[in-house]
Amino acid sequence: MYFPVTRPRRLRRTAELRRLVRETDLLVRDLIYPLFATHGVKVRQQIASMPGVFQLSVDEIVREGQECLELGIPGVILFGLPAGKDEKGSAAADLEEVVQRSVAALKKVCPELVVITDVCLCEYTSHGHCGLVEGGEVLNDPTLHLLARAALSHARAGADIVAPSDMMDGRVQAIRSTLDEHGFAHVPILSYAVKYASAFYGPFRDAVGSAPQFGDRRSHQMDPANVREALKEIEQDLAEGADMVMVKPALAYLDVIKAVKEYTNVPVAAYNVSGEYAMVKAAAQNGWIDERKVALEMLTGMKRAGADMILTYFAKDVAAWLKEENK
Question: How far apart are CA 184 and CA 161, in angstroms?
Fold first, then answer.
């Protein structure tokens, strides 16, 4: 018998011992902070379903970027609330829109901050879908050049990374070709390669007003029951030119993160999405859980599953918590 010679509890006896033998470390440099850009000046509008998260004007976006750098958070990802919407999502490629203006402002004031832009049409279309719509159907191929134009405008504004989240087939190739043709071969693509048709996105759609006006997104986002399909999506996006890939959501898809990490040799991101964040916040506000402990445990699980970087609304809180722990 192993016991009593072998006693695993020996290495758990003190905090110092536990830290010494820890297998997975959640680090501030693993985190990407999502930001919601809107029009105006000195705008900081609380998002009701996401406590502690705001719609921000460009000047406030810059302030957040500076704070991220001070906390050691290496990058942000930007989403936009345009001045107007139409059926084609025309504002997505407008250099005067808030995402493009936020990129330019951030790179001017915080040049070392990694600025990622979400590339999709859902925030910009009047119908709330991720592409052109005809007869109630989201059209794939006619949408591709619009996505590529949006990504190009982000690159022109100074984005370090573009991140297509629309889930149209072929969009990585369309974006890569367009960027290369216009002198932006150096701009990497972080593909939302594995994006599920999830019920966890509700608060985000409140934040940017992107809920579909009819139907849903199951024709292009993935079936939550599938894992092998995720690997097919990864393979295709990498063949089209993706430099990094993402799994979204994260909490209910830790097995998918692990499978993707084992399947590929490129950096893997996980998106700790709005619904995951809101559930923790709501439970903590009711005194049912310890927000700090649950958030750290949840994000550590994502890192343990294989995520190299985590997009999370907890990023600033986690940076402060980890700093306290390391004093």
Answer: 11
pLDDT digits (tens, 9 = 90+) for 268-311: 999 999 999 999 999 999 999 999 999 999 999 999 999 999 99
Helices (H), 224-286: 228-240, 254-263, 274-285
Nearest CA to 247 out of 176, 322, 195 is that of: 195
Gap between the Cα atoms of 28 and 62, Å rounded: 20
What is the C-alpha to C-alpha distance for residues 34 and 37, in angstroms, rounded to an integer?
Answer: 10
What Å distances lie between residue 324 and 94, 317, 327, CA to CA? 42, 11, 5
Instruction: Name the least confident of 18-22, 33-37, 134-138, 295-299.
Output: 134-138
Q: How far is CA 176 from CA 5, 68, 91, 139, in A?
A: 59, 29, 21, 20
What are the residue numbers of the active site?
195, 248
Query: Is 269 in contact with 244 (CB distance < 8 Å)?
Result: yes
Question: Does residue 326 have a pLDDT over 80?
Answer: no
Residue 138 scores a pLDDT above 70: yes
- Are the C-beta atoms of residues 283 and 256 closer than 8 Å to each other? no
pTM of the model as a whole: 0.95
Q: Residue 115 gets which letter from DSSP? A: E
Domains of the chain: 24-325 (3.20.20.70)
Tokens 């982000």 locate to 154
